[in-house]
Predict the 3D structure of the following.
Amino acid sequence: MSIIEYTTPLAGTAWTKDWEVATISRLAVEAGHEIPPQPLPTRPPGPGDESTEYYSCYASVAGLDKFIYESCASGMGLVEDAEFQLLLTRQIGDDGAHAQRYREVVAKGTGFDPLNSIDDEARYQRELVGDLTGRDLAGFLAFEISYELYTAPEFLILGRTARVSDADLLRSGAERFGPDEFVHRQGVANWWRSLVARLPATEAAELTAQVRSRDELLWQRRNDDITRRSSVAEDATQANYPLIRAIRSAWRDEVHQFLFGEPPQAGS
Ligand SMILES: [Fe+2]
Ligand SMILES: [Fe+2]
């Protein structure tokens, strides 16, 4: 049985692949861009600096996955619901496998095992976020929203517009990373809505307010780092990162609308 079948979408908009693509495509048009319907052709990273930058970018992405599976593993203790625990076991397995796959590709491309850089990046993320994600359920959910739900535009736009790509990574991205990350996003989003629907109204409102305040804190704490990472990734892949940056905040509004029922703010 797949995770999709045992999460519980509620009435109204369900978090589906079609909804993600349609929403992100609409935001792109509103920002004056178009997302190509199929991935653009890519070439492998060139020798020398280009290759070094490219693989170092992906060692750092592996570090993010390491931080994510570590956070999910410690978050397991904050979640009493069996359905969400099962989703977390899948996330831990998938994001661990992603980190390992990036590690293998970087090692093959450079001749060096990037394990220390991966570890450094995961530690850096931990320092950035502090204990915000491990204190309580609201903080943990804010972590899931930030590190999983907010990444949808980057996955889609990078996949369609990258001009430089390692062939092994391209294949793993299409076959594994992309589909897995969609399941993570859909699982968290639909579970959150089913949780809110089950809770008494005052408890739901209280938890929602806590998640929103942790989300705001995390948005501020991660802002500079995300901007920096996006410029490194733009240099490495030559993908349409200006578009990814242009719709970052508008996509967050859409996610909020899905999770909290609040309409996106015009012009934000
Ligand atoms: Fe991942
Ligand atoms: Fe993930």
About this structure: Residues 68, 91, 95, 148, 181, 184 surround fe (ii) ion (ligand 2) (CB under 6 Å).
